[in-house]
Predict the 3D structure of the following.
Amino acid sequence: MEVLFTFLPRDNQQERLRAEFPEVNFQFLYKDKTHLPKADIVVTYGEDLTAQDIESTNNLKWIMVASAGIEKMPHAAIAEKGIVVSNVRGIHKTPMAESALAHLLSLKRALPFIYDNQRKKEWNRKTKSSELSGSTAIIFGPGAIGSEIGRLLQAFGVHTIGCNRTGKESESMDEMVSFNNSLNVLPKADIIISVLPSTKETRHLLKAEHFQAMKETAIFMNLGRGDLVEDRIMLDAMQNNEIAYAVLDVFEQEPLPDNHPYWTMDNVIISPHVSSHSGKYVERALDVFIPNLHAWLSGAKTPTNPVDMERGY
């Protein structure tokens, strides 16, 4: 059994795998696919495999994606070979929920203003601080991550409205609406957060009319995927002050070009696709992979968190 990692876990994590699976030949090779034709299992972040790579494989049966998104993978080539794909859905919920709360509390409690005054050595108490308590938040994508954000927001006294494809009830949401009915609730939202994946249904889901329906005091946060809204529509909304702030962790083009207007806009917070980052990330991914590998070696061929390559999640 040959397992190829296309990224490099820390030495102690590599040792953990080798000690637990002495019968497995692990290859930890960053940007080196020479072992791909022999690999039975590949563990990847999902951005480094091409259709040509998949075609070069002879034994590959399972791709474990140490991420939630699979939009950059060669779907057709993988499907043609019947390769099982799974991901680590759910491990992002703690760091991403904390990132969402950090940005919201920072803006509500005027931390950028306070920090700026410190740099200027200016004693200015006109912070215009506000509170999360009593506000309303719409969360696009109330799955594992969105529900955790909802749980934390509810602890701060925020009314939560989940928005997904069907409007089906979801954990830690006081209300639910479908994508088709989102325009009906956007006017009462103080906070709008998206953690949606990139799928056929979510690409450019939010249009100009959605931002025009939002409060001028609203905070919009995209921690999911950059193709949720066309860049020109997002830019127009911010240049026209249709909402108060946009916290953007993802963009249609990444890295964000250094000449993009966002860099100099006071009402846009740029986060370089880091909301899920944590020193515990790979450790949590291995906690998903290891039980699945034990099961796979015992004959089970359906790992947890299977991905439907057609639906995109």
Notes: The radius of gyration is 21 Å. The chain has two domains: 2-90+279-297, 93-270. The longest strand covers residues 159-164. The first helix runs from residue 11 to 20.
